[in-house]
Amino acid sequence: MCPIWKRKPFLGFGIGVGVLGALALALRHRQRRDQGRIPDQISPAIFSTRVAATSQGEIVYHICGSGTPIVFLHGFFLGASSYEWSKVYAQFALRHEVIAPDLIGFGESERPAEALDALDHVESLVGLLHEVVGTRPVTLVASGAGANVALLLAARHPELIARLELFLPSSLQDEAKIRTMGLIGKSRIPGITRLVYRRHLAQPSFIRGWLSRSGFADPQKITDETVDVLSTCAQQYGAEHAIFSFLKNRRSFDVSSRLADIVCPVHILWPGRASGFYPAEVTALCRSLPRASMEVLPEASAFAAMESPAEIAASLSRWIDGDLVNLQSD
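Now predict its structure.
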């Protein structure tokens, strides 16, 4: 008897395509599983992990404490997540309600393939704040390009923000800053950049080397935990989309035209040992903000929240829990 694929070749072709599709799907799911579970160390054990639905996708966030709310936003860098602030924000949970989200595309949050700009991130955070804190204005602590998202959020929704505490605010427009954050440009050859990202950049050896060269002031302070969390986050399925999207749309993170609209007090921490970043940048930023102040931390690196969290926590606490009368009267 003649086999069915010889008597009906188009049916045989369809079966073959279906089998190949099933194999591709199985490999895709296997790839997702093989990329590893994000370590529990991404947040302190006392924090609950929850999920909020937003206009851009689901945001995973960590929450603990009670009192006036503080939100910590991480920057945009290789393997970025709320872990960046985890050694700092736990110290505020005794006096405040602390909320630490993974921005869309990073950490444990949804990782869409679509490119997001700064406004997309703002709208997703608006959804998060409405769900978690309601109408209570928050203190927003943010770093790197995440600080620019915070500035845009404060300009567009002043009713949501009581004050901003920014660490190394930057839209990362030049290559020196991009290298400090472990970011790469997209190759013109399709698939090559993603392959390099997966096989090289997202690997623990590269991440440790990058942090040693330009991320930390003292490479001896790079812990196995930090490398493990950053590399595992960087290896998650779709994690490269957020990096490529940011590099494609980073001009949208330039919020200089909206600075005059920010009415809340802004305090800026500037790390003196961040490779490729210079104090003149923050001086110009302060002059453009109606109510701003700055503090230079001479020995701090670009990732001081992970390298020297006690110093960063002390500086933040002076402004969050200290007497703000002088700042508010400026």
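Confidence is low (pLDDT under 50) at residues 1-6, 8-34, 323-330.
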